[in-house]
Design a protein that fits this description.
- It contains five helices and eleven strands; from the N terminus they run αββαββαβββββαββα.
- It is an alpha+beta fold and 234 residues long.
- Strands 1, 2, 3, 4, 5, 6, 7, 8, 9, 10 and 11 form an eleven-stranded mixed sheet that branches.
- A hairpin with a 4-residue loop joins strand 6 and strand 7.
- The longest helix has 13 residues.
- The mean pLDDT is 92.
């Protein structure tokens, strides 16, 4: 059960226009068919209580990350901020970097990956297909190997495009499925149903003003994550 104290401790940035939360692997960003409480409702409740706001609190969902993934998620507190952040996403002015833990050695220490992805709605999965395939979308990311443990590698991934399950599908396509990600070819799940993919860093110009915001999201309470966070020294 989510407590107010644990939620507040995960706030990475907050002002009158935006709030950034460090998402837990088990949470959903927006409401879905599971009926579980989404982060958007938690944020609304927090804002209503902190600022003693009567009635319905406005919270805009700027972007989402998958349920088993952790890391930084931005919410807009005003409609103006939401409109401008959405425009930044479209123009790629909002930069996202992920950490991904994989077992297999990547083919190169750093590279630019381009694939074409086709989403299967029934399976909630994206497949790498040939260019020009029906309903396919171009997906691009850059990765670099930043650390190693005895059994795993830590990749830093920067998204160039934002597609459904993009990091998961593209890393799997190059032979490096993410730890715990059964859907994309890892051999076993993590005990808590998470996968070792973390939205580590966000960088963007504040939607109201010129200030540049840089967010670093601490990794989950997990021994392997903590090992890599210490190794990288960040």
């Amino acid at each position: 059960m989510q407590t107010a104290e644990s939620f507040v401790s995960r706030i990475l940035y907050e002002d009158n226009h935006i709030i950034v939360i460090n998402k837990l692997p088990s949470e959903i960003v927006q409401g879905d068919k599971t009926g579980d409480m989404p982060m958007s409702d938690l944020v609304k409740a927090y804002i209503a209580k902190k600022y003693k706001k009567p009635g319905n609190v406005f919270i805009g969902v700027v972007h989402r990350i998958d349920r088993p993934v952790s890391g930084a998620v931005i919410f807009a507190r005003t409609s103006k901020a939401l409109t401008r952040l959405n425009a930044m996403l479209q123009s790629r002015e909002l930069k996202k970097k992920y950490w991904a833990v994989v077992k297999n050695e990547p083919p190169a220490e750093q590279s630019n990956l381009i694939h074409f992805l086709q989403k299967n709605e029934k399976q909630n999965k994206s497949y790498v297909v040939d260019e020009g395939a029906k309903n396919s979308k171009r997906a691009e990311l850059q990765y670099r190997l930043v650390s190693r443990s005895k059994d795993y590698q830590l990749l830093e991934v920067e998204l160039i495009t934002g597609r459904h399950h993009q990091v998961r599908a593209q890393l799997a396509a190059m032979g490096c499925p993410i730890k715990g990600d059964l859907k994309y070819g890892f051999d076993r799940s993590n005990p808590d149903a998470s996968i070792h993919l973390h939205a580590r860093e966000l960088s963007f110009k504040h939607p109201i003003g010129e200030k540049v915001i840089n967010i670093i999201a601490p990794v989950p309470e997990d021994n392997l994550w903590k090992f890599f966070e210490k190794e990288v020294g960040a």
